[in-house]
TrEMBL record:
Pfam families: malic, Malic_M. SUPFAM superfamilies: Aminoacid dehydrogenase-like, N-terminal domain (SSF53223), NAD(P)-binding Rossmann-fold domains (SSF51735). It comes from Flaveria floridana. The gene is NADP-ME4. This is Malic enzyme. Residues 404-657 form the Malic enzyme NAD-binding domain.
Amino acid sequence: MFTWLLIQRLSIRIPSSSLTNIRHSVTGEHKYTPSLVSFVKMSLKGTTFTNNSLLGVSRTTQSQSFGVSVHPRTVVAMVNRNGRPESSVGVSVDNVVKELHAPTVVGVVDPKLKEHSAAVDGGFDDVYGGDIATNDDFITPLSVSVASGYALLRDPRHNKGLAFTEKERDAYYVRGLLPPAVVKQDLQVKRTMNNIRQYEVPLHKYQAMMDLQERNELLFYKLLIENVEELLPIVYTPTVGEACQKYGSIFKRPQGLFISIEDKGRILEILNNWPEKNIQVIVVTDGERILGLGDLGCQGMGIPVGKLSLYTALGGIRPSACLPVTIDVGTNNEKLLNDEFYIGVRQKRAKGQEYAELMNEFMSAVKQNYGENVLVQFEDFANHNAFDLLAKYSPTHLVFNDDIQGTASVVLAGILAALNLVGGSLADHRFLFLGAGEAGTGIAELIALEISKQTRAPLEEARKKVWLVDSKGLIVKSRLNTLQHFKKPWAHEHQPVTDFLDAVKAIRPTVLVGSSGVGQTFTKEVVETLSSFNEKPVILALSNPTSKSECTAEQAYTWSEGRAIFASGSPFAPVEYNGKVYVSGQSNNAYIFPGFGLGLIISGAIRVHDDMLLAASEALAAQVTQEHFEKGLIYPPFTNIRKISARIAAKVAAKAYELDLATRHPQPENLVASAESCMYSPNYRKYR
């Protein structure tokens, strides 16, 4: 006896015994036919078979093994075991698998339902219509109807919780699976924020937000967008640092792709396991230098997940177009290797040729799978790999290192804005950095590029305005032979200076930048010395998380007697000094990378150019108003971050067109409006 399942141009004939096996494999009674389950799922989505295989089994072998015959045919129905068609009701993928014991399931695909491209080309095929629908349009939450609303309530992309209307509850079999009340999304936002505010520990708030993201994606982003200043420190730095440290203990559900050194030779296959096939942004880390916390190995996944949440909330990139990836090559963190809850490969870090070959396979597979226009953002790689990867793949891939380039762009924006408070041009100032790693040298180079652009002086001459201090002291010519390659451009003529306070006295900077990853290194003596020869010293304590900040806002304002222009990498509360309240800015990369990425996407850019970073900095600085300056701010509030991101995206896209690096033609007349129109909306849609 056979049951017929006819699905989207495929007619799949499955023996009843095989259906029983599928049911057992789902219930856990037996482990049978996992490939056939995938076969059914892929067929329901209309996915074609690639490389003649499913999970390594050829189509011929697949059919012979399970008695499945495949014929080209359109979707009709599934009949019962007596061979008689039943009345039309809907069927979901999950219910085909989970409720095969039911005598009746009939799935009919809406003939009016067409595959749409997302608002920005290169996104996934939007079979639901949700990404191109307006808030008033109706969409279908699943590509086939649903026989049971139970699965729909557990689909984070389409679950609306109590916001399902009375009609939707009937149409999608949700009636009785929810309490009777129907509430608006705005009330859900209010209630959820009230619940999150009950938690006193930031990590608990982080976990609550991650739980929400896995339960109701639209509500998660609605909540984050409308409460960005309050929730940004929760979903990203500084709280995400603690989350990464404890990732193995709090791990519940994977949120990205984990590619290990043991997967060498199979990376393309692993990328194909990801359900979305048209990715626009990948954030990848190897976990070796997570914030200022060091080597966290596989547990660094919290960083790509957090970054991509911000790409969506702040830059409007659709969640389905984002892919978080962790490259697990081991860890040198002995504490993690001995931790029974550690979730990564338990070995020392691979390096050298083995590491390079794995990364090369990954980059090649990404380009092969997702095309020329996919943006790969390198995140929290150690210095020795970060610079090499950026240099190697910049000529051939669309790559961006947020630690080097994103940090540089946001800091340059703050400095450009600060000129309105301290006066002079960029070339009139002297810059001293504590820290000469990825962030320090990246910021220094972008400052020099902007000085060179403004003055038309050679880059080598512009670099002389910038001095760096590393763990061995001031970087000078006499140290040239022992310096790492990325530090050598900053070796100027000067006598050796080993103490940082002495370097401040010798260089007499107007702008002090901390990127050391070591807390409390801007001491009282350092700040007082800086303030002694600057009426308004600019102090940027950029290291994250808060415990690693070179000084606090209170220390900067107090030790400078209220004269400092201060910003930090992690947020600080307002400070009262001598009866005046000082509000410090946050030099957060989240100002730059979401809009920067959006600009690359809307222009179809194929490479990142330094002039794009300068354009992003100038666009951000232009958003700081006189009202902000009067409060001592050198960055605009995050409350308007989506408008800020749209303006940054427009400037980046314009530069891509100017440099002939754009592939999306013709160029829109109004790039700001184009950017805003492409942004993902987290508002609930009406379901048919």
